[in-house]
Design brief:
Structural class: alpha/beta
Number of helices: 20
CATH class of the largest domain: Alpha Beta
Radius of gyration: 23 Å
CATH topology of the largest domain: pyruvate-formate lyase- activating enzyme
Strand order of the largest sheet: 8-11-12-13-14-15
Strand content: 5-15%
Distance between the termini: 30 Å
Shape: globular
CATH architecture of the largest domain: Alpha-Beta Horseshoe
């Protein structure tokens, strides 16, 4: 028996896609497997328990917590944005009250320790040495004992996708090591892969963790289980998912039709440096998977977790719709400038598209090697809007190719196309560690740590981080049309819930 764990803390709205891949591969080889979504369970355990102390607003949040949780699980909860937002704010207040004693700022979307950093291996080891300091300790202790008694696993695997999972995961690992010292532990996931592909990587976790997996985990995990020539194929299983317990108005089915990015040329992207090749599933396999999974689980929404959905897959979805609303990331292509094509996407169930535009300035886009122009982006947004598909637009400010005038041109672009933009995610550029040598910039650390994934840098055009932040706070976010777009972004859950407000997919309460 292999027990796979998704540790806190991340948005508890859908099961982890990575563990579904691993579980499917193990089940296909007739290996017993269990999936423990400790993220969902741990957050709900706190939300369903009274805080030890708190002010009037915290007591009110506790009194409303059951109602607020059920609101986020119901279709009715997404009809009024103000009621939804108030419920999320109250639940976040309750999580903050439960974690304050542990020097942690905890929410439905994040976990930040006031002293320890997930960027320092020494702090992760400290979390493992003192698991009782975690706000999840009581839950971990009870749940771990029950899971191990029921399953008696021979191997435990933890998947780390986000920095917000690192410190809680190491607290759980420390508890396993303390109470079950002989149980082998393996960790993998996107975060672990990024650590291991740093040029200066030296494993600081020897003695605590038995195996670290770099990249896709199916074959390494099967080899650990004794299969030295694993069968090839596409295996995905949500057989252990407890759909009604997630904070969503119906099951959200995460699905990755590919690994890597078919474009794979953006100058700032860490994927080429990390050696991530593009690995698409065959289109017919994707359609078959979706048919099987939607028949089994009756999802309210499909979440494509790909870096970018390929043009071939978009065409296939039009020709053979999955029968369920869906959303995911796309690149701006000539297809998306064609209103008829966009209308086909809408008919196929497309509830929203996420677009990493990054800038509204042609010189910046050229420097970033985005392969798109401002005019093309504008045509695509208008075609999508005419078809009734909201665009969730991602913007990066402060890139090495941008200066203040270019940032204002991005603001002008957003204002011109505000009616065609459903949501915006404006962010300040962080330089990926793996892109440092490629871009040749003079860098400096944000924080001292041996596991840094991003760096600050001396901007070649003098557009420094402090100036960028001031521009965003004083100009960009205050522009009336931009402010109106930002106000409709779902708090904490952001794009994971946005489609429920944007496309209004037909929801089935569970």
């Amino acid at each position: 028996m292999i027990l796979l764990i998704n540790p806190p803390a991340a948005k508890p709205c859908e099961p982890p896609a990575g563990l579904a891949r691993l579980a499917g591969a193990l089940e296909a080889h007739h290996l017993p497997v269990g999936v423990w979504d400790a993220n969902r369970e741990a957050l709900l355990a706190l939300l369903e328990s009274a805080p030890a102390a708190g002010d009037h607003w915290t007591r009110q949040a506790w009194a409303r917590s059951t109602t607020d949780i059920e609101l986020l699980r119901s279709a009715a909860g997404y009809r009024h944005f103000s009621a939804y937002s108030a419920a999320v704010r109250r639940l976040n207040r309750l999580l903050a009250a439960h974690s304050a004693h542990a020097e942690v700022v905890l929410s439905l979307a994040d976990y930040q320790h006031r002293t320890w950093s997930p960027l320092r291996s020494g702090d992760l080891l400290a979390a493992a040495e003192a698991p009782e300091h975690s706000p999840f300790y009581d839950y971990f202790r009870r749940a771990l004992a029950a899971r191990l008694k029921a399953a008696a696993p021979e191997l435990i695997g933890l998947s780390l996708s986000y920095l917000s999972q690192a410190l809680p995961a190491f607290a759980l690992i420390g508890l396993i090591r303390r109470d079950h010292p002989g149980l082998p532990i393996v960790i993998g996931g996107g975060l672990v892969t990024s650590w291991m592909r740093r040029p200066d990587w030296r494993n600081p976790f020897a003695g605590l963790i038995d195996h670290l997996i770099d990249g896709p985990g199916e074959i390494p995990l099967l080899r650990l289980a004794g299969f030295h020539a694993p069968a090839s194929g596409s295996f995905i299983s949500f057989s252990t998912a407890e759909w009604p317990d997630y904070l969503a108005p119906g099951p959200i089915l995460p699905y990755d039709a590919s690994r890597g990015c078919y474009w794979n040329r953006c100058a700032y992207c860490p994927e080429p440096a990390e050696g991530h090749g593009y690995q698409p599933r065959p289109v017919q396999q994707v359609l078959a998977d979706l048919g099987r999974l939607t028949a089994l689980h009756k999802p309210a929404l499909i979440h494509f977790t790909d870096n970018a959905l390929s043009p071939a897959l978009l065409r296939a979805l039009i020709e053979q719709p999955p029968g369920v609303p869906w959303y995911g990331f796309v690149r701006i292509t000539t297809q998306l400038m064609d209103q008829e094509f966009c209308c086909g996407l809408k008919k196929s169930g497309c509830a929203m598209l996420k677009i990493g535009l990054e800038s509204g300035d042609d010189e910046v886009l050229e420097g970033m090697k985005k392969g798109v122009t401002v005019a093309q982006a504008g045509r695509a947004l208008q075609a999508l809007a005419a078809a009734g598909i909201p665009a969730y637009v991602y913007l990066l400010f402060g890139t090495p190719w941008e200066e203040e005038a270019a940032a204002r041109r991005t603001l002008d672009f957003v204002v011109r196309h505000a009616g065609a933009i459903g949501f915006i995610n404006p962010a300040i550029f962080n330089l990926p560690a793996d892109a440092v040598d490629t871009l040749g910039l003079e860098v400096r650390s944000f924080y001292a740590g041996d596991l840094q994934l991003y760096y600050d840098f001396n901007h070649p055009l003098g557009w420094e981080r402090r100036q960028v932040r001031r521009f965003l706070d004083r100009e960009f976010r205050r522009e009336p049309s931009v402010a109106a777009i930002l106000r409709r972004t779902p708090p904490s859950f952001t794009s994971n819930h946005a489609a429920f407000f944007a496309g209004r997919p037909q929801l089935t309460s569970v």
